[in-house]
């Protein structure tokens, strides 16, 4: 078993995900806190948008690198890399969704979890 550099908890992972997204200028970052919901599949869903398939890949890789660097962990599962419209990184307690803007509107995940505590992350100043 790989030892971690930092105790992996969902709050730490969520912060690292946001940092990785911001590093590659992801837009419209939203954190859905699902901790208080019955039958929730994770503690957090973190969603962001990318403007191109190149940025989508860069954001997903940045998130993976940030978490690997600090915790030594890799995602339990990843999906969508070949389609390049929606990449999902599953860290069990934190599920990351990186969407192309039009795909995000189509799937509207924020609406599916409307009873979650939702936080909107401000863009970092340039």
Model description:
- Strands 3-4-5-2-1-6 form a 6-stranded mixed β-sheet.
- Strand 3 and strand 4 (86-90) form a beta hairpin.
- Mean pLDDT is 89; it is low at 1-7.
- The protein has helices at 10-23, 53-71, 101-107, 109-112, and strands at 27-33, 44-50, 77-79, 86-90, 94-100, 117-121.
- The chain is globular, with a radius of gyration of 14 Å.
- The chain has 126 residues and is α+β, with helices and mostly antiparallel strands.
Labels describing this entry:
126 residues, alpha+beta, six-stranded mixed sheet, 4 helices, 6 strands, 35% helix, disordered N terminus
Radius of gyration (CA) equals: 14 Å
Uncertain ranges: 1-7
**Fraction of residues in helix:** 25-40%
Structural class: alpha+beta
User: What's the count of strands?
Assistant: 6
Helix and strand pattern: HEEHEEEHHE
Instruction: Kindly report the average pLDDT value.
Output: 89
What percentage of amino acids are in beta strands? Answer: 25-35%
- N- and C-termini, Cα separation: 40 Å
Tell me the major beta sheet.
6 strands, mixed
| Oligomeric status | single chain
Q: Count of DSSP helices?
A: 4
The shape, in one word, is: globular
| Biggest sheet strand line-up | 3-4-5-2-1-6
């Amino acid at each position: 078993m790989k030892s971690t550099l930092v105790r992996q908890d969902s709050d730490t992972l969520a912060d690292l995900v946001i940092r990785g997204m911001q590093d590659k200028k992801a837009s419209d970052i939203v954190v859905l806190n699902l901790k208080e919901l019955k039958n929730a599949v994770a503690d957090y869903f973190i969603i962001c948008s990318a403007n191109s398939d190149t940025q989508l890949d860069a954001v997903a890789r940045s998130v993976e690198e940030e978490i690997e660097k600090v915790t030594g962990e890799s995602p339990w599962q990843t999906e969508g890399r070949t389609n390049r419209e929606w990449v999902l990184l599953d860290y069990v307690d934190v599920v990351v969704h990186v969407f192309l803007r039009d795909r995000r509107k189509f799937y509207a995940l924020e609406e599916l979890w409307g009873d979650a505590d939702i936080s909107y992350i401000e863009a970092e100043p340039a």
